């Protein structure tokens, strides 16, 4: 995926500057936003590990009907938190946390195989300048303009490094997303304001790893690379939870 020219990308990275420093205290709250083509249960393994560590974890049930609606659902959960919070987004959830992450309760942002548009950017534009990823070729629209992954391809393209039965079960839970949401421009881009962390999925068939690396570098994020499919919260929950814990501690 061609995100920007090399010169423009480097200029954006160096012009962005350092994010606001994290506070010393460990955040005790974690809010997890899922991506498109799945539901909040995709975070269950990560949430379980974090709760065992003493974190208060909330998985957001975003409707996937529009960017505005998804952000509103996330803000509602953030408003209910007491104290510092780490806000985490997977895939499309990265767009959502970029909008909602300007909340004063948010200590840090964690992107997991996620889109991270800047102000004014849309996913439609970001994905238009190169050949579609293998997973995107399996995306189908319905008569109402909602998009979903062909169930026959889902396990392979979305979570190919999990047992087939687990991938098939996840496919049965997939939630379609409004195609119009991909044309909604980012208006906040909270990664300019908060310390940011990124988990790249090296074997991602939905969002090219090169694009993920671009987002991470542009944000000056603390970055880890996982030998994972797109759905790393499902197939690599320990590593994802560990990165979230680092964000909570400001490491």
SSE layout and pairings?
Layout: H1 6-16, E1 29-33, H2 44-52, E2 56-59, H3 67-79, E3 85-90, H4 93-100, E4 106-112, H5 123-126, E5 139-141, E6 146-149, H6 151-159, H7 164-172, E7 177-178, E8 196-201, H8 209-218, E9 222-226, H9 232-235, H10 237-249
Parallel strand pairs: 1-2, 1-3, 3-4, 4-8, 8-9
Antiparallel strand pairs: 5-6, 6-7
Helix pairs in contact: 2-10, 3-4, 6-7
What does this structure look like?
This protein has a single domain (29-249), classed as 3-Layer(aba) Sandwich (Rossmann fold). It has 251 residues and is α/β, with parallel strands linked by helices. The protein has 10 helices and 9 strands. This is Hydrolase.
């Amino acid at each position: 995926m061609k995100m920007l020219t090399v010169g423009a990308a480097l200029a954006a990275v160096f012009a962005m500057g350092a994010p606001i420093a994290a506070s010393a205290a460990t955040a005790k709250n974690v809010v997890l936003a899922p991506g498109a083509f799945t539901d909040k249960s995709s975070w269950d393994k990560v949430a379980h590990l974090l709760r065992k560590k003493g974190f208060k974890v909330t998985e957001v049930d975003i409707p996937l009907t529009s960017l505005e609606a998804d952000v509103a659902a996330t803000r509602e959960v953030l408003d209910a938190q007491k104290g510092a919070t780490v806000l985490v987004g997977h895939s499309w959830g990265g767009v959502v946390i970029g909008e909602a992450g300007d909340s004063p309760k948010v200590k840090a942002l964690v992107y997991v195989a996620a889109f991270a548009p800047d102000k004014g950017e849309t996913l439609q534009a970001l994905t238009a300048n190169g050949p579609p990823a293998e997973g995107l070729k399996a995306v189908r629209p319905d008569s109402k303009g909602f998009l979903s992954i062909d169930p026959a391809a889902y396990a392979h393209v979305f979570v190919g490094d999990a047992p087939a039965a687990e991938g098939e079960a996840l496919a049965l839970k997939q939630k379609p997303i409004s195609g119009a949401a991909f044309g909604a421009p980012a208006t906040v881009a909270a990664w300019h304001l908060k310390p940011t962390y990124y988990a790249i999925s090296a074997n991602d068939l939905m969002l090219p790893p090169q694009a993920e690396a671009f987002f991470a570098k542009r944000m000056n994020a603390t970055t880890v690379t996982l030998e994972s499919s797109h759905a790393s919260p499902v197939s690599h929950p320990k590593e994802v939870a560990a990165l979230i814990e680092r964000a909570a501690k400001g490491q």
